[in-house]
Amino acid sequence: MEVLRATIYPMLVMGGLAIFFAIGLGIAAKVFYVYVDPKVKEVEGLLPGANCGGCGYAGCADCAAAIVAGEAPVTACVASSEDVFVAIGEVLGKTVEVKEKEIAMIMCRGTADKAKRKFQYMGIEDCRAALLAGGGDKECQYGCLGLGTCVKNCPFDALSMGEDGLPKVDKDKCTGCGTCTRVCPRGIPKLVPVSLKIAVICSSHDTPPVVKKICEVGCQGCGLCKKACPEKAITIVDSLSVVDPSKCTLCGKCFEKCPTGAIQQLLPA
Amino acid sequence: MAQKKSWLKEFTKGLWDEIPPFRFVLGLCPTLACSTAVTDGFGMGLCLTFVVTGANIFISFLRKIIPDEVRIACFIVIIATFVIIVELATQAYFYPLYLSLGIFIPLIVVNCIVLGRAEAFASKNSISLSIADGLGMGLGFTMSLTTLAIFREVLGKGSFAGHFIMWQGFEPFALLQKPPGAFFCLGLMLGIMNLFGKK
Amino acid sequence: MKEEGFIVSVGPHVQGKESITSIMLGFIIALIPAVIASVYYFRIKAIEVILISVISAVIIEAGLQKIMKREVTVLTDYHAILTGLIFGLILPANIPWWAIIIGVFTGLLVGKHVFGGLGSNPFNPALVGWASLKLGYMSHMDISGSILGVIRIEGIGALAEDYSYFSEGYGIESWGSLGGKIKLLIHTLLGWKPLPGEELVGCVGQICALAIIIGAVYLFWKKYISWHIPVGFLGGVLIFSILFYKGEKEFLYPYILIQLLSGGTLIAAFFVATDPITTPVTGAGMLVFGAMAGMITMIGRLWGSWIDPVWFAILVGNALTPLIDKIVKPKPFGRVKSA
Amino acid sequence: MRDILRLVVVLTGICVVCSFSLAIVKKGTEERIEYQKIKFIKAPALKAVLPEHDNDPILERVKVKIAPEKVITVFPAKKGGKLMAIAYETAGDGYGGRIEIMLAINVDGSIAGVKVMKCSETPGVGLKIVTEPWFCDQFKKFTVKDKFILGENVQGISGATISSTGTTKAIGEAVKWFDEIMKELG
Amino acid sequence: MKRSMKGGVYLEESKVESTIEDLPVPQRLVIPLKQHKGPPCKSLLKKGKGVKIGDEIGKSEDEFSAPIYATVSGKVAGLPKRFPDIRGGIAPAVEIESDGKEEWSISSSPQEPLQQSPEALMKAIQQMGLVDFGIDAIPLSAKLGLAQSKHVSAVIINGVDLEPGVAVRYKLVTEKKQELINGIKLIKKILNVNTAYLAIEVKNTTAQEQLPGLVSGVAELAVLDSKFPQGLDIFLVKAIMGKEAPSPNGVPEDVGVCVLGADTVIALWDALKDMKPVIDQVITVYGAVNKPKNLRVRIGTPLKDVLSHCGVNGNIAKVIVGGPMMGLAQYSLEIPVTKEITAIYVQRQSDLATISDQKCINCGWCVKVCPMGLLPNVIASFCQVDMFEEAESYNLSYCIECGCCAYVCPAKIPLVHWIKYGKSQIKREEQ
Amino acid sequence: MAVQEAWTFSDYIMLVVSAVLINNILLIRFLGNCPFLGVSKRMDTAIGMAVAVVFVLSCSGPLTWLVQRFLLEPFKVAYIQTLAFILVIACFVQLVETVIKKVSPPLYRSLGIFLPLITTNCAIFGACILNIREKYDFLQSLIFSFASALGFGLALVIFAGIRERFPFARIPKNFQDTSIGLITAGLIGMSFFAFAGLAK
Ligand SMILES: Cc1cc2nc3c(=O)[nH]c(=O)nc-3n(C[C@H](O)[C@H](O)[C@H](O)COP(=O)(O)O)c2cc1C
Ligand SMILES: Cc1cc2nc3c(=O)[nH]c(=O)nc-3n(C[C@H](O)[C@H](O)[C@H](O)COP(=O)(O)O)c2cc1C
Ligand SMILES: Cc1cc2nc3c(=O)[nH]c(=O)nc-3n(C[C@H](O)[C@H](O)[C@H](O)COP(=O)(O)O)c2cc1C
Ligand SMILES: Cc1cc2nc3c(=O)[nH]c(=O)nc-3n(C[C@H](O)[C@H](O)[C@H](O)CO)c2cc1C
Ligand code: SF4
Ligand code: SF4
Ligand code: SF4
Ligand code: SF4
Ligand code: FES
């Protein structure tokens, strides 16, 4: 009897508690039912979690919700690669078109010895803050200030400050998230397709005499390249030369003519 | 996504890559409380290993029939059963350990590692992998706890597993035996661990 | 006019003279009287304790700065010296040398460097070191034999019982008379010299109240400290010691005097509770901080286990500082009500 | 409804199975646990307070009901089968919590020994009731008929009035149970 | 009895005591087409054309812009589109080669301003291109218009120079007493108020001796502490009338007061009494110059001419327009004196303020001196880690960038720079 | 086994002082570290968590006391205490969560997210067990539960205050987050030794 009681009682107690709570929970779950889409969590798990904000949403979780809700495309995350998009697509049952990967490129060649300075800047080591003192110390109002705000803000450690005072992109690490483009007060880093073969590495919209005076390597917008190009791939927009890569055949005529070397071949022909 | 998981990999990840509580920051309470002496730390580690492994086996076994609404409740019941078994066993066979671990034996039930493994691993994986995971995590935890306990016992009491081992005239730094000392040691060890390997 | 061009920066273009280094130096200078007094009372022991503390603070600070990959600044700014000096002054004179080193190391590592060095630490490193020793080597940190340690509520009873001790030893005939009161004041200000055959016990820098007050006057004169924290702290101690005084009326005066002028009270009020890094930034906040630290000190002295919990009390204040700063904020100029 | 039923069945099922297995484990370990408890907590104290004996007081322990709500465990010490003394526990309030005491009394009613088993008094102050043997030993001069008054016939530890009072009071109360126990033991 | 403010700092900079002296007109002047808060004026000239003093050379429809007049007779030598301005930006300007004849295009026509109607006066003020002198340079017409629309009940004439050491108003209030008093009367009439205060510094003992008799009946004399930034209008209003203009960006008009600089009021009288535009600006030149001076300078005179007149001292490192606290450092001495400039402060290398990236030590000195009652250390710390929302929750936008906090900071943290940075980033994020 | 004397008012005060300051459940008893480190990044979440813990513990402490007194003890099955308590707590928390989620979404957003964390919070379970081990009666266990939770909340809020300054502190990378959190907890615990001896 004693033995029986010792085994039955615990079972009774626990069974009773369990029935009580299970019924309670079951009813509560029914009465207070709220739907949460489990896909959101799943998608969030696939995103890189860097919360870089490149997608335009307040962090990865927000972006995941938007993707699931259909407000954002599956490829919304700028920091993820193809396989992530495919995986997200799997979760949502969508097929994915993959666009070409982009990486950042520093659109200025005005190193310390080539581009003139207006004055000596003294203050916070940050390009955005430097603009507040005399509008930036570089004569060129479009050029890189070289204080490395982009370097400090790259969430993937893909940028470093070169000895020449211009940032350098590590092509393997860069995910094309665009943070640098956004933080740079002068928009010097630009996102370009990895397969870009030719570009004008300068951001100055100053007129030829001005550029000539202040920077040895800037694009003056003189139009010599435009004249030299047999394919008509080059236009001058607001004193800055622009190459249409789809027309360019890398014949090399423009490089020969450019007085400052602003136009550059990026990949072997 | 569906990569092949190997038994060995699941086992060894708990010993370094995801060693709790350093890389996998859960289960701090027993780590802090049960590291005043090497025997306590080691004993606690083994108790936990038993519970995680046991719970992992059963949860993995039952994972298909447990309804979602009471998932956590069921897991906890299973875990609690193993905890009570440990509680009774230590009382019967390792009474001094039972005394010094105090309420931290029943507290294994809420140890975030155990439930964490149940939730994150056992409820999604096969039994054999769950065993590997449980053993790995448990032994990793035992290792961490013992290391911390060695530090705290040797400097804080001058002894190792109860035997005085320091030089004549050594006076132990009793702070390490006290709660603040526990926090400091664990915090510093974590910081040093972060220097090695990925975070 | 200059080849590289002018310098352009954001204003203001002029600057006050004080720097962190100059303030540190000021604090060190202000502690010199206390150091001299400690050497007068404890002779070689005081020199030992203070030297070991300061030297080990400088060396350990340099080492930790190096390990943490920070600029090694121990020789250019004086904060390691200040930390070491304050730490030395709040230690008992008969503490072993290795304990000082352990205390300095714990204080600097756990109290400061893991937080990121000067300015980042939420707790005063010297006090963290002190508390580590207090909890780690309780027997070496015992000051219960000192007269200045006799500040617990029972202590005043002991004073009364040992009436003859005071009258014979120090010439204080009665507690009530004016002469007795003045003598008592002078003794508590200058410190109690041990009677023949007795050994002086106590903390190195806390014996002579006058020396600390001289240093404090210097700090006030240089405007390195504002009145808020000392007033809050001493006010808290004073109010509590009057409010909760339970003894006979005759002993109220010596009781208050001892609460205010002995033990760590004065060093705490002027030198440690005023540490800028770990205390609130607004005047009102400082007042609240001081008062809380003072009251917790007295609560501990009246009902707690420690003979003098003043350093623990300040650590509690340090812990509460961010909250105080969050709650006690000045009203911005022109803030429109009900915005 | 089906959902709820499933939920109830699974949870209850698991609970019942678990408690059943626990009941079995418990049954298997019960004996040993009780023995262990006494062995580790009480054996050293028993050894210290009881006079020479040749039996195992722990094995021969008996439970005695001394009040409707109060059952205590008594450890008899025998030599050659003859009851020499008994030992049992008492407790009093100290400065830092309960003070647990093992008290041994010879069959003639004289106190055979007193030992503090567990307390959390302050080292250097109240802990002197443990570290200074004379304090506990002084009770040996009394019998169960005596009154224990601190400061009169019992000398307290100076500066630890609370601890001393607690101990003394606890012993004073416990000796009153002696007659009752002897009656039970026969 | 001196009135004072909460917060602020006392600087050792002593006043330049010399009487105001005329600076010879240089060969070549540059007259920027933006010398006011609003957008630049449009040029009305062609290169090579002759001009006379008082010719209108720039015009704008904007309420916050004021017409620009030629300040010298001669020939238009250039019309640069992108001339550097004192804020580091660029604005169009007109370069005039002086012919040394100093001919006016309009003849002097003495008026009786006090007899005219307020409407006529407002129109004249608009026409004369008057601005409230100082870095903000709000056109006087806009400022008085605002005061009228808010029905202010008092005016404060500010004889306190904002920046330590500057002595423009300090000298003008005694050197041009009569003009000042007439100007005050005029303002009272325009704004239709009876209460007027004339604020002067406690340091200005001459004014305290000479003025009381003269101003009685016109304005009440208020003596203020020589403390920075007591000269800012919101703090004058608080010290004199006890009213706080609502922040951020509050103006005294919000609490029914109009504050005008004494120099502005004097210029107003001078302009209206002959209906002639303002062509001179009184400035203090001090700091690391051989002969610190108070000068009356033709608007458009490049800084280099001003500085060489005062004898710059060898190797100068920094040239600041405005004063040491809120002034703007310049990189070019080609920049001309405009209505925005009241002082030029020059520094040597050894005078420069240092900055460091030391961690704030929470000393609270900045809190003690902040006249706006802010926690500059917390705000700047948040800005340092780009937590601008949190910085704003500590009232970042209330900061008037007076610089007191950075002045006292023993850690030499460039607090104002961080604060400006925070504000600029918030503005950028909003766009 | 002396008969327990009736508690006076000051005994209750001591109980509170002890649970909040001296034997702080988090800093001295080491219970509840995971949520302590997890939700102290911002003051508002810390306060949310503190409130949630106070609420849940104040309910589940007495609840488990009742289970012990009226279920486990009468049936002589005290050894399954762990099982019974954790079931009760887990189900109670889940119940609360489900209800709040539906009834008050704003409250759920501020408190609800902490509730799952609470189930596995050692502090809750530990305090419930301590109630029994310390042999508290119903009122005492109610007060102890509440005061323990208050102690947890106090430590959490103090820590959150300190932690809000961490962005400005130049903490070495490897010490960030958990590591520095633990050290800070140790320092706060150390400072609380100021109150040693105020209650038994
Ligand atoms: C860094 C350092 C730490 C030390 N720590 C201790 C200690 O924890 N306990 C101790 O008794 N002695 C310690 N010592 C001191 C020596 O080991 C010494 O042997 C001890 O003080 C015994 O000396 P004594 O016999 O002169 O007292 C330490 C010494 C150094 C340099
Ligand atoms: C740190 C500290 C520890 C104490 N520990 C004890 C103790 O363990 N036992 C005790 O009875 N009193 C203890 N006390 C209390 C005091 O000694 C108290 O004055 C004494 O109990 C009152 O007794 P009295 O009547 O002899 O003065 C302690 C006091 C302090 C400050
Ligand atoms: C904040 C505060 C804390 C207190 N803490 C204690 C305490 O820990 N112990 C104590 O005996 N009295 C404490 N008291 C004082 C008691 O309320 C009461 O005055 C005192 O216990 C009466 O002492 P007695 O009964 O021994 O004469 C405290 C008072 C305050 C204001
Ligand atoms: C300006 C300044 C003043 C200081 N004053 C004190 C002080 O009064 N008391 C103190 O203990 N520490 C003081 N410190 C030092 C500081 O608390 C501690 O030593 C540093 O945080 C680490 O060395 C001061 C630090 C600075 C920067
Ligand atoms: S690219 Fe832009 S952000 Fe980067 S260093 Fe140059 S100016 Fe600064
Ligand atoms: S370099 Fe620019 S685009 Fe590339 S990862 Fe860094 S921030 Fe993103
Ligand atoms: S600059 Fe801004 S924050 Fe600094 S003192 Fe002036 S108003 Fe205050
Ligand atoms: S004055 Fe400088 S160091 Fe002091 S609190 Fe302000 S910012 Fe920090
Ligand atoms: S182990 Fe205690 S809360 Fe996680």
TrEMBL record, chain B:
Protein name, UniProt field: Ion-translocating oxidoreductase complex subunit E
Coiled-coil annotated spans: none
Subcellular location: Cell membrane; Endomembrane system
Pfam families given in the database record: Rnf-Nqr (PF02508)
PANTHER family membership: ELECTRON TRANSPORT COMPLEX PROTEIN RNFE, ION-TRANSLOCATING OXIDOREDUCTASE COMPLEX SUBUNIT E
Main location: membrane
Oligomeric and partner information: The complex is composed of six subunits: RnfA, RnfB, RnfC, RnfD, RnfE and RnfG.
Transmembrane segments: 42-63, 70-89, 95-115, 127-151, 180-197
Enzyme class: translocase
GO biological process: electron transport chain
GO cellular-component term (any): plasma membrane
Family the entry assigns: Belongs to the NqrDE/RnfAE family.
Keyword Zinc-finger annotated: no
From TrEMBL, chain C:
Keywords: Cell membrane, Electron transport, Flavoprotein, FMN, Membrane, Phosphoprotein, Translocase, Transmembrane, Transmembrane helix, Transport
One of the record's GO cellular component terms: plasma membrane
The protein's enzyme class: translocase
GO biological process entries: electron transport chain; transmembrane transport
Keyword NADP found: no
EC number: 7.-.-.-
Membrane topology summary: Multi-pass membrane protein
Keyword Acyltransferase recorded: no
Transmembrane segment boundaries: 20-42, 49-68, 80-110, 200-221, 227-245, 252-272, 284-303
Primary localization: membrane
Localization annotation: Cell membrane
Protein family: Belongs to the NqrB/RnfD family.
Oligomer status and interactors: The complex is composed of six subunits: RnfA, RnfB, RnfC, RnfD, RnfE and RnfG.
Function noted in UniProt: Part of a membrane-bound complex that couples electron transfer with translocation of ions across the membrane.
Name of this chain's protein: Ion-translocating oxidoreductase complex subunit D
Automatic annotation (TrEMBL), chain D:
Top-tier EC class: translocase
GO molecular function, one term: electron transfer activity
CC per GO annotation: plasma membrane
UniProt function note: Part of a membrane-bound complex that couples electron transfer with translocation of ions across the membrane.
Domain called FMN-binding: residue spans: 94-178
SUBUNIT field: The complex is composed of six subunits: RnfA, RnfB, RnfC, RnfD, RnfE and RnfG.
Membrane topology term: Single-pass membrane protein
Protein name, as recorded: Ion-translocating oxidoreductase complex subunit G
Species whose genome carries this gene: Desulfofervidus auxilii
HAMAP family, alphabetized: RsxG_RnfG
UniProtKB/TrEMBL annotation, chain F:
Predominant subcellular localization, coarse grouping: membrane
Keywords: Cell membrane, Electron transport, Membrane, Translocase, Transmembrane, Transmembrane helix, Transport
Enzyme Commission designation: 7.-.-.-
Coiled-coil intervals, chain numbering: none
TM stretches of this protein: 12-31, 43-66, 78-100, 112-132, 138-159, 180-199
Keyword set includes Thylakoid: no
InterPro entries per the UniProt record, alphabetical: Ion_transpt_RnfA/RsxA (IPR011293), NqrDE/RnfAE (IPR003667), NqrDE/RnfAE_oxidrdctase (IPR050133)
Membrane topology label: Multi-pass membrane protein
Cellular compartments per GO CC: endomembrane system; plasma membrane
PANTHER family reported for this sequence: INTEGRAL MEMBRANE PROTEIN OF SOXR-REDUCING COMPLEX, ION-TRANSLOCATING OXIDOREDUCTASE COMPLEX SUBUNIT A
Family (UniProt): Belongs to the NqrDE/RnfAE family.
Function: Part of a membrane-bound complex that couples electron transfer with translocation of ions across the membrane.
Protein name: Ion-translocating oxidoreductase complex subunit A
Organism field: Desulfofervidus auxilii
